[in-house]
Amino acid sequence: MFNLKPTRFLVTVCNEIYNIIRLTAAGAVGSAVLIPFAIGAAGFTAAGITAGSVAAGMMSSAAIANGGGVATGSLIAILQSAGAAGLTAGATAAVASVGGAAGAVLGGAADLFSSNNSSGPQDPSDSDDGDDVELENDLRNSESKELMPR
């Protein structure tokens, strides 16, 4: 999978893990912040359901299906409650969890398809300039020295 020297392998793995963590955090925070705005934009507001909005269409369909009313606990009722009063702490945690999971999947997919893992042409700036050899020599020398003189 990796055609890299050990030191570059470690750096590559750390960068991949960092990218997944970064996108997981971005997904969690982004979803927790953006979902209330999306609910409002759909027409679920503190003043009620906005006429002509997606929410109005949903409410109309639900009312027709239920014989003229919207059922308690239905998706329409939950979204209107969230639009009017905001998300509860539990709902915010759930939204952030789903967003974080989506970010982690996105991070893993981005890593899987990134050019860093391909066996194709490498970046010319990533040439072998002998740094790895020097590092390996330093590691060998440090291992051969005694940690505590006698």
From TrEMBL:
<protein>
    <recommendedName>
        <fullName>Interferon alpha-inducible protein 27, mitochondrial</fullName>
    </recommendedName>
</protein>
<keyword id="KW-1133">Transmembrane helix</keyword>
<keyword id="KW-0812">Transmembrane</keyword>
<dbReference type="Pfam" id="PF06140">
    <property type="entry name" value="Ifi-6-16"/>
</dbReference>
<feature type="compositionally biased region" description="Acidic residues">
    <location>
        <begin position="125"/>
        <end position="136"/>
    </location>
</feature>
<feature type="transmembrane region" description="Helical">
    <location>
        <begin position="20"/>
        <end position="49"/>
    </location>
</feature>
<feature type="compositionally biased region" description="Basic and acidic residues">
    <location>
        <begin position="137"/>
        <end position="150"/>
    </location>
</feature>
<comment type="similarity">
    <text>Belongs to the IFI6/IFI27 family.</text>
</comment>
<dbReference type="GO" id="GO:0001836">
    <property type="term" value="P:release of cytochrome c from mitochondria"/>
</dbReference>
<keyword id="KW-0472">Membrane</keyword>
<dbReference type="InterPro" id="IPR038213">
    <property type="entry name" value="IFI6/IFI27-like_sf"/>
</dbReference>
<dbReference type="InterPro" id="IPR009311">
    <property type="entry name" value="IFI6/IFI27-like"/>
</dbReference>
<dbReference type="GO" id="GO:0097193">
    <property type="term" value="P:intrinsic apoptotic signaling pathway"/>
</dbReference>
<feature type="region of interest" description="Disordered">
    <location>
        <begin position="114"/>
        <end position="150"/>
    </location>
</feature>
<feature type="compositionally biased region" description="Low complexity">
    <location>
        <begin position="114"/>
        <end position="124"/>
    </location>
</feature>
<dbReference type="GO" id="GO:0031966">
    <property type="term" value="C:mitochondrial membrane"/>
</dbReference>
